[in-house]
């Protein structure tokens, strides 16, 4: 439980009373009550208000808000306010603003504009966090700390350059080691002095955001930047912890956000929280996968849904409204996949600046007589009825999909073999094939304990980090099923190729080697032709993007390419290794293949679907003290039904016993207990 | 009349004898005479020639040109020459060049490169204007002053930053007022000192040209920049007026040019002039609308067509030739819509640099035996025959369409709800629907006196400035018909939302409120379904981009949405208000709907089409001393005919009496008097 | 012969032993031997290794490599290593790095980053070249010098600005001459002091890479930059020659690379060498044309194929594998068109940085048991068998196509008439029409002696440089056939229009003048309609992009436009001039027209195809001491046949006599001698 002060699914969201005149506050109180809101995230952007100059701290407005909220039965997720530094600070200490990747010194403006390696910024931000913790640590409204906001973006200042050199010294010890790791003999880039190293930017090695001449330095800079921002977070964390010993601390993450290694970050978060902003055309399974990833950051621990919009966004190209029922449906999707909170950005729509067209519980009309408010209030009532029953419930997936930020960076930085390869999309193809069959999945990091799973899938595991191959081998040795694909096992953590034949360290496990990698032009495809019928798989399936030209060593060939000069070479292989099996998929297959293939693997392992249900139903399950809670979410516009066999099952939302045919209304939700 | 020295439609254009050797001038004289040219715009880019260094002014070449032209019967529109500053000035006073939106200090080059807030630039440019006025104020050739050239572009220098702060102080008085207006509590951007304010650029709040974090500061910067450039113009204007008391002063505008608020500028122009550069695929009605806008800048006062090309442009992607007859046709289009001059850029094609492939009366061949020259000379003869008859004639439109630059800026700066919304395109949809029915329109600004009109249409009036709602109410109260659309009445002049329900201040007038605004994805559409047949309207019409979800208060619902979850909600409403009616169109409809709808409104007000004519005929009318002049312009490649009922009508170009069926040849023009 | 030490087609490529541990070298030796490799290009990026600081030069590793290679029977193409400067140099002398076109000072990184006008860079680079020459001039392995690597890119530093002013003073003598050449009276850009001139960049006159306000300065800057880089090359050349008197010196060019005038460069290369990187979808005729251009740089002298990939590239969007046989096929394509070497980039794939996915003879697997190695080794054996027989053989084309870099720059810098015009594409259309008919072509520069040819084709000869028109006239006078097209003869070498009627200086020769130039919108086309059947031409052919509206003077009209207002005006003309004919094609025709037209011209001149062969066969011929070698290259996936009439012909690769039907296998090669 995040905080036992409030033993239910928290409901509420971002609240910015400082943007409003006091007469509005009373109306806020009334409307929050009507909507069943019990948590407000406050102070996210209040730095300039609390600290109007270098030497003054004024907590009076915040005191008032904390007290008022508490009086009205609302708990507080208290932000440290460092999401954007004050204008006076940028003027007095220019070093606090960033330099961008184009080498341009930024001036005051926006957010994500604080130089993470500015000593001034670090001092001021952690000092503020400490003062807040000292003041509010015992406030009865306080239930969680929210450090800064949506950390992100990179910096290219001289402060970061100097810090980068120090980070490199610590990492490599000697320039020789660094020169080897970056292969600087290529293009004669050998460094003879640490001071010769300049950070990689458009002025040095990079262009177009993810193109680089030297993968080594660019990869390290991403690690370093993720680390620099994490240090800023940790400084605030420590400053809070000095005073506030027990209240959980988090910062809101952003799903598959590219620039930060969230598996590294999660180690320092008491609870993961994140902001979920799908658009009208985001695949439902993509949102599901993202929730599962956020749950996986801390090995299955429930997380906070920190932000979602009640109605529409402002920053998408086309900000469609959430259709009736969809806000509730997507809220339960989060809960089904591990969220113990349902929080919005925002409670009241702002009157000006760039987020004024972002949805809110209280819209510009200002009253409760809106569709959005009614839907929010209905969900608020429902969550009050649900109480704490689902809190802390966990998934019990036997299938894991591996996702790794460093692998992603390395893949995106790669020059060749193809620009068509998108790591997140490839991972999603595998997730979606399982999702469509209602099979539970955990999204796991490269350091996760694999022994909890029956099947581990590692799509496009281009970079194999130290120790992983041995752990994968042990997993399979003991009976596990391991799956990986084309363009895997290519490089080590420095992006240096493992020589001697791809997939390098995974070669013994997979029993194959890849001689060449063909990149297909747009419009080109090949086929995966099954050697023989294998349960759900038979005949031929389209594949594309890349085709590894592989040779089996110990592995058995299950399918072969159907065309081009490598027609007849293996396209799908399996290697028996100890008690388990390791599969290699040599190209990027279509959905039909993946559903059949993964269905077969699950059948082999007696992994059952959560439910037999038609397309359009999403199924997910949480388990608490042995009791399963099966979520059925209907994402379509018409009622759907499914059969459940067992007796003694109740619908948690209606209380009624359910048996035989379960009807799930359009955009509806059933939570079946038992 | 612009200047009674030359009481006819002026004919000529830009002339740059300084680019040529003297032996060419005699040939110019001969060819101008052949072409019937009587006005030359000179000295547009002569600053470097007249002022070769800081202390020297040399007018000898200009003296010679003025005298020569006058001797040859050609009057002069005399430019102040400040369209581009000299190279020596940029070298000696680097402050005169601009800093761009990316923060880059520009060096010498191009035009639109003078820092409008450079004291040096202001001093030198107004001094030059003054010296020219002093010298030539009584020259017999002089008929108009032409200040600088096509003012445009923004500057991001420190001089502009300092001036911006002063402008803000004058506008807001206190930082509290400014902080409120910009809603700086959002993202903690509160300013405690004027010096903390930095101008909005890619280094602060903006990106991609029209994206911003803070609409308030970005909107004010556009106002400030338009104002800064206008100040430069006014300094030259005042310097001229000190000596030259009566000769009209103008600067050439550019139609719907985005960066300057031409309604504000027009207050300081004695006569509006503009440069008309449609391409082969520009809709004819778009050019017509632009002429009408230029006429509307000074409430209907005739304007100068300052530039058009006789044949082709150079700066378009595909610079097609004007087909035979088109130059004449488009010249009369300008005249039909209020132009009292027909001027070209340029009289002789330049031999080098970026405009050498821009058309001219005298092409590179250098003689009169070209199609282009022949067409120019024919028009010259015709305009001599026309004499002064049409001068000062006015339109008598009863329908006005409102266009407002500040609304446009605010819409383009908006973050959400959709990138598909383009203000000028939306305005054009309404214009085009009236144009297709040969109904006269005035394009008017937000400050225009509405009582002159029967119908006022204000598409997407997102920003409602102080006083406008009351004037609109008074207009309708007195019997007027007012039309506005989705996404109107949202914000005030600071881009702060008018709370309590859209369309804010227009809500009483329209009798509806809008609860939500749905943005449609590309390819999506909805339908406007008529409640019942209403004259030209019945059944269902496609609509898209945005759909307001509105509720009627006092209004009557004329049509409803045909699909999606808001099927059945009002899509078209009318509110009886006093003696008049106010319509709200909740989405962006197709052309069929708009023609029917606007046709109905005109029928209700007994506003007749100028003529019953087929598509392809453009009709326009000017009236002078009670005599109407009906222009019929055939934009098609075949002859078209139309019927006119009344007797006593003459064709002004042929002199013949016209009755019954009027034939308009392909690309032809008729001007029917009486 | 490039160097008679190795009297055969050289076989090998780039080799970077410094990137590898010594234990790998022995394996390199073994594998090179297996592959039949006899030349290694080394030291290309070794500057930082050889010169670890300002005062130290360490040749020990290079000594070892040279000796080892020689011991193993491998000759060395020795690079000067200045392809990228060391990091210490960039730190100690910031002037050595470039400033980019956006005005941004670059820091250390990448290659193409040395400021060509930095005195420090020039001193250090030529000093290194001299030291290498002094040390290795008599090394028995040395067969060629390779200066720097793939010179390219422009610089915008203050050093280049100062050097540009000096270059301009030398070119123009006086500012008056410069002001005239650049037509600076346009937009009042007159310079009164040399110091006022700033180099053209995004901060002054240019934008989007090839857009400019002043063609004159932008064109001169391209000349100056090509010249500056050439000066750097020549400083190294001279430093080498001081010691090494006879060994040929080259630098590797890049085909149609835009930024350098290779005809100017070739004057200073002892032998042309170039890097050939077609992709899977590059038209075969485009690669052929590029080889022919490289051969034409030194008037037909055989060239070095310095780089090609054995398998795939890394820097294309989709890096497809070379299909089986294609590496051999394309190697012989180079030889067929004048290459006397077949060299790869690279011999061993690098382990890290951006080229690790670039193909190599020794792939990451590290052994010889790969398809790529096997194909390389087979070709190695074949080239050993071929020996020196083909060396120094020449083409004997009677048709020349003119290509001129200055014309290309001017065309790309032109503002108008259309963005659709691409010079290289237009040239390729003509080349392809001849290629498809197996007619030999030489690609020649504007200074080439035309009298060697029967037919000279100069597509889109926009810029006619001094003396060319007279030489073209003399060529036709003497019986030659000259062809040019729309948008030719427009400007002189300063991009100043030749007044009086296009095509200016070519007008007497062509007997026509062009009055107007129409640019077609995308999707628009016109037709070339033959007046009467003329051999292979009859009826109507599509044309587009630009349409010149021309009038015949002395010329005869062979075809007319089929539509638009210029229907019936001449579209194809011929002018009898002395003993020859000059043709003008007024628009850009389709391939059918061009094949017919050029076929007709060849027939008129009794120029026979090399062979009657089906599409898919490429034919090329080299002649040595009167003996012809006919290459037949089958680019398709199936066997093709062709008939040869004469007797006494042998296949050089198989030794067998060939008569009657010649079979060319899929992707196969025949070299027919006799």
UniProtKB/TrEMBL annotation, chains A, B, C:
Keywords: Glycosidase, Hydrolase
GO terms under cellular component: beta-galactosidase complex
Database matches in PANTHER family: BETA-GALACTOSIDASE GANA
Keyword Protein biosynthesis: no
Domain Beta-galactosidase C-terminal: 616-673
Annotated positions binding substrate: 111, 149, 315
Organism: Paenibacillus apii
This protein's name: Beta-galactosidase
Catalytic activity line of the entry: Hydrolysis of terminal non-reducing beta-D-galactose residues in beta-D-galactosides
Domain (Glycoside hydrolase family 42 N-terminal): residue spans on this chain: 14-384
């Amino acid at each position: 439980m995040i905080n036992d002060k409030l033993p239910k699914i928290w409901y509420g969201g971002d609240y910015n009373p400082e943007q409003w005149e006091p007469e509005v506050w009373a109306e806020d109180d009334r409307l929050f009550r009507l909507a069943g809101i019990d948590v407000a995230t406050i102070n996210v952007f209040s730095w300039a208000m609390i600290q109007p100059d270098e030497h003054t701290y004024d907590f009076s407005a915040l005191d008032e808000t904390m007290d008022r909220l508490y009086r009205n039965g609302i708990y507080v997720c208290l932000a440290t306010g460092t999401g954007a530094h004050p204008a006076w600070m940028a003027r007095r200490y220019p070093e606090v603003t960033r330099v961008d990747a184009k080498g341009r010194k930024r001036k005051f403006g926006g957010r994500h504009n604080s130089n993470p390696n500015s000593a001034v910024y670090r001092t001021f931000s952690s000092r503020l966090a400490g003062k807040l913790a000292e003041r509010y640590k015992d406030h009865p409204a306080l239930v969680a700390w929210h450090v800064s906001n949506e950390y992100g973006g990179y910096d290219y200042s001289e402060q970061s350059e100097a810090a980068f050199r120090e980070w490199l010294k610590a990492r490599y010890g000697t320039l020789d080691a660094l020169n080897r790791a970056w292969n600087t003999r290529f293009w004669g880039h050998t460094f003879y002095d640490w001071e010769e190293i300049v950070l990689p930017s458009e002025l040095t090695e990079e262009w177009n955001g993810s193109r680089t001449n030297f993968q080594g330095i660019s990869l390290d800079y991403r690690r370093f930047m993720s680390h620099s921002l994490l240090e800023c977070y940790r400084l605030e964390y420590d400053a809070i912890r000095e005073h506030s010993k027990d209240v959980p601390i988090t910062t809101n993450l952003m799903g598959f956000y590219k620039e930060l290694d969230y598996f590294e970050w999660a180690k320092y978060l008491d609870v993961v929280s994140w902001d979920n902003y799908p658009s009208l055309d985001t695949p439902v399974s993509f949102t599901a996968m993202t929730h599962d990833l956020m749950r996986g950051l801390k090995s299955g621990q429930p997380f906070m849904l920190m932000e979602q919009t009640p109605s529409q966004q402002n920053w998408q190209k086309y900000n469609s409204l959430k259709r009736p029922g969809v806000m509730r449906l997507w809220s339960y999707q989060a809960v089904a996949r591990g969220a113990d909170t349902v929080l919005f950005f925002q409670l009241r729509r702002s009157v000006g600046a760039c987020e004024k067209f972002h949805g809110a519980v209280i819209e510009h009309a200002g009253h409760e007589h809106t569709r959005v408010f009614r839907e929010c209030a209905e969900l608020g009532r429902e969550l009050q009825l649900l109480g704490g029953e689902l809190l802390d419930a966990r998934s019990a997936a036997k299938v894991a999909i591996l996702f790794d930020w460093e692998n992603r960076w390395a893949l995106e930085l790669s020059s060749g073999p193809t620009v068509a390869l998108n790591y997140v999309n490839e991972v999603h193809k595998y997730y979606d094939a399982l999702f469509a069959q209602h099979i539970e999945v955990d999204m796991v990091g490269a350091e996760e304990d694999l022994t909890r799973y029956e099947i581990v899938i590692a799509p496009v595991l281009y970079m194999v980090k130290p120790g992983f191959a041995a752990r994968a081998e042990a997993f399979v040795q003991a009976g596990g099923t391991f799956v990986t694909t084309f363009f895997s096992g290519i490089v080590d953590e420095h992006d240096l190729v493992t020589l001697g034949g791809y997939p390098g360290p995974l070669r013994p496990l997979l029993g194959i080697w890849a001689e060449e990698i063909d990149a297909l032009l747009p419009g080109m495809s090949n086929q995966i032709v099954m050697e023989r019928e294998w349960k759900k798989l038979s005949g031929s399936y389209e594949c594309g993007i890349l085709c590894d030209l592989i040779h089996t060593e110990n592995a058995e060939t299950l399918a072969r390419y159907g065309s081009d000069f490598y027609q007849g070479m293996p396209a799908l292989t399996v290697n028996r290794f100890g008690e388990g099996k390791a599969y290699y998929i040599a190209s990027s297959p279509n959905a039909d293949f993946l559903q059949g293939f993964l269905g077969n693997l699950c059948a082999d392992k007696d992994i059952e679907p959560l439910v037999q249900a038609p397309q359009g139903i999403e199924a997910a399950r949480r388990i608490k003290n042995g009791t399963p809670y099966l979520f059925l979410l209907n994402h379509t516009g018409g009622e759907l039904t499914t059969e459940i066999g067992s007796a003694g099952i109740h619908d948690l939302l209606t209380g009624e016993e359910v048996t035989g045919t379960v009807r799930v209304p359009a955009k509806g939700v059933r939570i079946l207990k038992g």
